Automatic annotation (TrEMBL):
ANK repeats: 86-118, 155-187
Gene name of the record: CLPB
Protein name: ClpB family mitochondrial disaggregase
SMART domains: AAA (SM00382), ANK (SM00248), ClpB_D2-small (SM01086)
Native organism taxonomy: Eukaryota, Metazoa, Chordata, Craniata, Vertebrata
Chain positions covered by the region annotation Disordered: 1-21, 551-571
Molecular functions per Gene Ontology: ATP binding; ATP hydrolysis activity
Length: 600
């Protein structure tokens, strides 16, 4: 292992030589047959056979990367991105073997230059695959390269990494021209430039990095223009348009360079439970960091309610237990200083934790228990809290009711006027007179609130949003039914209204999820257990006929005292036959009220 955890070029200390590895006799025979053009003879017959792990044809492809017989294999329709059973691809073999002619042919056949190697180290792969380490070592040396450090980790290395390790300028140039990413990092966090020697390859990579960054920036700007962040977030979050717009505007300022580089972005998400606060934070991290897990740090602040638990946050001081382990936040921020950090339920944290956040939010740096300072000015900090959630919910409902009354006074039939009640905004007076005193009383310091860039309000769902939530939840279970039992699940429009009535203001979308499970999924499970659902059948969820009139009368007029006490409409399952006729399922309740025994 070289300095900084980098894999050495070879075990002897000299640079890699353009010598191909020794092949097994069978692979060599296959390659010779293919090279000799015996595509229709014994070589082709042998190529059609399969073995455990990789097929003979795939082995022939890797072997051909050394001996020039790759054209016959490519003409036979071989997938050039096929992986060896230990993780590498043919393009990586050609790159490390310093064979630019093969690299050219593979790239012309649409080989992906940005695929990462799945091979880590000899001992890790032996453990992962359940093989003897000697077998892995011999395979790596015979079928890939025999001059690489056997103890180093190569996971995530691309063909460009290997071409740089081999110091093959021609292959490096071909890979870059084919779209290889010079900024792509391997598992150790190193780019190809980190392995380059002084000379032509290093100069080529430096120029390519600058060019690639500029092109990448231009592509990202164009992509953001065509597909704004707000639209991306709306694909995953129902409602909360005001919250999405606020977060989207702040992220846009940051992405386009219109922000203060000396201070991180800080948000405070306020609203009831189950209303989308955590999901918005997750989707923001996914947008900024794609699928990189280190780009999203989530800390449950209910774990930091005591004074002594502050040490878990930044690490214990010298001489205390856990000093070497570091803090939960500092350790993760060191790995990804520009991460999206979620402090979930921050109102439950001890005041000493909030004191630490003052420096974090103001200067964008944090000192851990070891005395090391972490610079995280490029990070985004999001706090969620249920403080003042009841006041926000009641104010939103009041605003919607006022909007409904105003819309009734206006005779309007177009869609915009009908949806006026769904588009409400929290007034500045409400924020200053109601919310700020509550926040100040809870957090007890103005300097903490003053460091928050945006306080984002999450409002209760309106009826149209509840319909979307119910439909989304039913679609989730329909996919499960199809995948697990090959059952097609359908539902009537009235079912959405019935299930939407199960919404609880205090529990948000979770109440809809639980309502669907209680009233629909419970019936599905009971019917399946009683063998009433043949595989491949079509099921429909419907409202009882006797209850449909009640549902319609409830929607058309204001309910009286007697109607408000009537039972909720019931749902039933029907099997739809091939002739589109529906047949109600007779599901026996496992424990009906008349069979229950009560003990006084």
């Amino acid at each position: 292992m070289g300095a900084g955890g980098r894999p050495n070029r070879d075990r002897t200390g000299s640079g890699p030589e353009p010598t191909g590895p020794t092949l097994t006799a069978l692979t060599a025979a296959l390659t010779a047959a293919l090279t000799a053009g015996k595509a229709d003879g014994s070589g082709a017959d042998m190529g059609r056979k399969e073995r455990t792990g990789s097929g003979w044809r795939a082995i022939g492809l890797w072997a051909a990367c050394y001996h020039g017989g790759q054209r016959q294999l490519l003409q036979a329709g071989i997938d050039v991105n096929t992986r060896h059973r230990l993780g590498w691809t043919a393009l990586m073999v050609a790159a490390i073997s310093r064979n630019p002619s093969v690299v050219k042919v593979l790239l012309a056949a649409n080989a992906d230059p940005n695929l990462g190697d799945d091979f880590s180290s000899v001992y890790e792969m032996a453990k992962e695959k359940g093989l003897h380490s000697l077998e892995v070592l011999v395979t790596r040396e015979d079928e890939f390269n025999n001059r690489l450090n056997v103890r180093a980790s190569f996971r995530g290395c691309t063909a460009l990494h290997y071409a740089v390790l081999a110091d093959d300028c021609l292959s490096v140039r071909m890979l870059l021209d084919a779209g290889a990413n010079p900024l792509q990092k391997n598992e150790m966090g190193h780019t190809p430039l980190d392995y380059a020697r002084e000379g032509e390859v290093m100069n080529l990579l430096k120029a390519s990095e600058a060019k690639f960054q500029e092109e990448q920036r231009r592509r990202e700007i164009e992509e953001r223009r065509r597909f704004p962040l707000e639209q991306r977030l709306k694909e995953h979050i129902i409602g909360q348009e005001s919250a999405i717009a606020t977060v989207g505007a702040a992220i846009r300022r940051k992405e386009n360079g219109w922000y203060d580089e000396e201070h991180p972005l800080v948000f405070l998400f306020l609203g009831s439970s189950g209303i989308g606060k955590t999901e918005l934070a997750k989707q923001t991290a996914k947008y900024l960091h794609k699928d990189v897990k280190k780009g999203f740090i989530r800390l449950d602040m209910s774990e930091f309610q005591e004074r002594h638990e502050v040490a878990k946050f930044i690490g214990s001081p010298p001489g205390y237990v856990g000093h070497e382990e570091g803090g939960q936040l500092t350790k993760k921020l060191r790995q990804c200083p520009n991460a999206v950090v979620l402090f979930d339920e921050v109102d439950k944290a001890h005041p000493d934790v909030l004191t630490i956040m003052l420096q974090l939010f103001d200067e964008g740096r944090l000192t851990d228990g070891k005395g090391k300072t972490i610079d995280c000015k490029d990070a985004i900090f999001i706090m969620t809290s249920n403080v003042a959630s009841d006041e926000i919910a009641q104010h939103a409902l009041q605003l919607r009711q006022e909007a409904v009354e105003m819309s009734k006074k206006r005779i309007a039939e177009n869609l915009e006027d009908v949806q006026v009640s769904d588009k409400i905004t929290i007034s500045k007076q409400f924020k200053e007179k109601v919310i700020r005193p509550i926040l100040k009383a809870h957090f007890r310091r103005d300097e903490f609130l003053g460091r928050i860039n945006e306080i984002v309000y999450f409002l209760p769902f309106c009826h149209s949003e509840l319909i979307q939530l119910v439909n989304k939840e039913l679609s989730f279970w329909a996919k499960k039914a199809k995948a697990r039992h090959n059952i097609t699940l359908l539902w009537d429009r009235e079912v959405l209204d019935v299930l939407a009535d199960g919404y609880n203001l205090h529990y948000g979308a979770r109440s809809i999820k639980h309502e669907v499970e209680r009233r629909v999924v419970n019936q599905l499970a009971a019917a399946y257990e009683q063998d009433l659902l043949p595989r491949g059948c079509t099921l429909r969820v419907a409202v009882e006929d006797s209850d449909k009139q009640l549902l319609k009368s409830k929607e058309s007029s204001e309910m009286g005292e007697g109607q408000s006490k009537s039972k909720a409409p019931t749902l039933r399952l029907e099997i739809v036959d091939k002739d589109s006729k529906a047949r109600k399922l007779d599901i026996q309740a496992p424990l009906s009220p008349e069979n229950m025994a009560y003990f006084l």
